[in-house]
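Entry:
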Amino acid sequence: MLIFASALGLFLLWRKKLVDSTLYLKLLIPIIFFPFIGNSFGWIMSEIGRQPWVVNGLMLTEDAVSPNVSAGQILFSLISFSLIYTALAVVMVYLFIRVIKQGPHEKPKEDVTTSDPFDVGGVQNAAK
């Protein structure tokens, strides 16, 4: 999805329609969360199916259970990590919304003629 969005953005940039494509720019807003979601789900999926302390074919899962860790300790750990990740996600969304509400920063008038090293293909100057 991110590769497709990037390719579409490059295509619109090449056609010099990136700034005028409001639908594409609006679709970029929810895409901001895709790396976080992908990272979280990838980590969850890799940890669900993995038991690194059990050697395949040599040791059964039931033999690898630790007698020193209770189910309550595991539940507490799981709830703690879930609460921490939820709090971090809420903070991230709050900060995103706060920055988005500020809107884009305008350049001072005297900077229009200077070359901008981050201006790819004259997009920023073309928008003025």
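The first helix runs from residue 2 to 14.
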